[in-house]
Write a structure and sequence with these properties.
- It comes from Aliikangiella coralliicola.
- This is HDOD domain-containing protein.
- Pfam families: HDOD.
- The protein is an all-alpha fold and 285 residues long.
- The chain contains 18 helices and no strands.
- It has two domains: 75 residues, no CATH class; 186 residues, Hypothetical protein af1432 (Orthogonal Bundle).
- Helix 3 packs across helix 5, helix 4 packs across helix 6 and helix 13 packs across helix 15.
- The chain is globular.
């Protein structure tokens, strides 16, 4: 078992031996279109599978649009280029990982990611936070390091299950002790390669260090802290530890839940009301 004292540079060396899916050429094509919305719509529409998936996502309850969108050009105009590209990246990430031999149940992994993303964006709308799209993207990307580490290490599922069973809630510590790297660091690398907004990439990197980020007065980015709190509430609502690691207790939430609720200004009763409202909006998670 590797020591927790391994340096950050060594962690980067370990990541250097792990497959990181490259950003697809479709994103490059879109970015070359600049502000030409018509050209962007044409590029996306040229792939029927991707365009249909985008329309399905934007019309889902997670986005809460009052008017249904029927085409990619309409989506680009109504939602804006940045929002559509974020949706595209989440779809293409899943597609790029389809052939990874990750030794985990990828269908379960993606279902849990979609659940967290949908709940996170709905939480934002319920709390009138203007970051629902960012929360959705974070929900889908935050655990993207799990499949690539599972493809690299044959015992990753076993270690992950043990990580979530730690009563101290230090999930990343167990992975680091075994592999010299953890899925949050791998996810951060993917987020940077895929050119996600910096705040989302930082949230991916720190999603198992939420208490440290909330306590750090030198971090003056309230969006980062709020996104992490929303993500943690969403994970707890969907019971992510049970879905990913067969852990019937969310030890991480037990450790940080009070601090998260304090930061967003919610009492325990407020949180229960919020969960009821999210369930009413989305139905079964």
């Amino acid at each position: 078992m590797l020591s927790n004292s391994r340096s950050h540079s060594n962690e980067k060396d370990v990541l250097g031996g792990i497959y990181i899916p490259p950003q697809p050429g479709l994103i490059d094509q879109i970015e070359k279109c600049g502000a030409d919305l018509e050209s962007i719509g044409e590029v996306i529409s040229a792939d029927p599978g991707v365009s249909a998936a985008v329309i399905k996502i934007v019309n889902s309850p997670a986005f809460g649009l009052a008017q249904k969108i029927g085409s990619i050009p309409q989506a680009v105009v109504m939602l804006g280029v940045d929002r559509v590209i974020s949706i595209l990246k989440t779809l293409l990430l899943r597609k790029s990982m389809a052939n990874i031999d990750s030794r985990i149940d990828m269908n379960l992994f993606w279902r849990s990611s979609v659940s967290v993303a949908s709940v996170a964006s709905t939480i934002c709308r319920q709390l009138n936070l203007s970051m629902a799209d960012e929360a959705y993207t974070l929900g889908l990307f935050h655990n993207c390091g799990i499949p690539v580490l599972a493809a690299r290490y044959s015992n990753y599922q076993e270690v992950m299950e043990f990580s979530y069973s730690r009563e101290d809630g230090r999930i990343a510590s167990e992975e680091f002790a075994n592999f010299g790297v953890h899925h949050a660091a791998a996810g951060y690398r993917i987020s940077r390669v895929w050119n996600l907004p910096k705040v989302i990439a930082l949230a991916v990197k720190n999603h198992h260090s939420t208490d440290r980020v909330l306590d750090d007065q030198s971090i003056e980015n309230p969006t980062l802290k709020t996104l992490l709190c929303v993500l943690k509430m969403a994970e707890h609502m969907v019971n992510l530890p049970e879905k990913l690691a067969q852990s019937d207790i969310d030890f991480e939430w037990q450790k940080i839940g009070a601090k998260v609720l304090e930061f967003v200004g919610l009492s325990e009763y407020d949180y229960e009301d919020l969960e009821d409202a999210v369930r009413y909006t989305l139905g079964k998670f």
